[in-house]
Amino acid sequence: MDAGFVATVALVYAMSRRRPRIVRRCWVHTILRKRLQRGEYHVLVQELRLDGVLFQQYFRMSKDAFDELLGKVGPLIAKADTRMRLSIGPAERLGICLRYLATGDSYRTIAFSYRVRHATVAVIVKEVAGAIWTALVEKTMPVPQTEDWRAIAAGFQERWNFPNCVGAIDGKHVVIQAPANSGSLYFNYKSSHSLVLLAVVDAEYLFRVVDVGGFGRSSDGGESLRDGSLHLPPDTVIPGGERLGLLPHVFVGDEAFPLLDNLLRPFPGRQLTRERRLFNYRLSRARKTIGRSSRTPVVPVVAESSDEAPTLRDAPMMGSNNATRRSIQLRETFCSYLNEEGVVSWQHKVV
Questions:
Q1: pTM of the entire predicted model
Q2: Secondary structure of 218-268 in the HEC alphabet?
Q3: Would you list the domain boundaries of the chain?
């Protein structure tokens, strides 16, 4: 066989086996390359720093607070530069996260403004939010100790005329996209998936305890109250209630919560005696603090929802309703006190 013919066949075969050349996409899009010159952080935010009011409106945080927070979380979120590209600095990372938390805009909207990829925004928000929690949780929102609970109780007695109250408690379902392989753990009564947000507020509308992460289908709002991990003060005599003996410190909640030895809820039903209606009014009045605080818009970091349903939903039931005899009697005791020794002059005018 002719050697030239064989060589030609071999060449044709080799060419047929050659993979088509892949046209690579650019390493960084031309728009993203101009981040340092035209990105929102490097242009608008720097101009906003000259006006404290506008800076506050943009980040929901003052310049001093931003710089202080940056000093605490900066080392936790800093990334090293590589030979291929410069990293996004800690200040810009913090700005991206705070802007997302302040507005609730989608990752894509933030990405266009800051000239980064939307996947990068998603990573930054998660990392920075975690760093903020790590840096601030022990100093900004430590779990109250016994003396702190006593001070909170004194505040409720002075401002809301409710004795031995150490906080108003409420819960919300935070709608999320179900994590992979989670089954029905996060599936709730609204036929959606959620985490449970629980919060306790003091007499001054300040959040004192926040718990996030209970499964939407099986959350129990009374677990931490039952296990004694909150270090509540020992039972004490309430003002003017010597005949009642020692009474526990209590939280006040709505109908969604179980009646416990240290958690009061309203009397159910409509055909109530005047005394029970007065008790319900006084308890509801003490709960105003959590009602007003929980109406503040909250942007969930857990997930972005594609539907238009409310992201925060009231939790209809936060545990079992099987009250003990002691908890039932405790509510009756508080009801008796608020209608006798603990009566206030104006309560009969509003009920």
A1: 0.69
A2: CCCCCHHHHCCCCCCCCCECCCCCHHHCCECCEEECCCCCCCECCEECCCC
A3: 26-139, 146-350
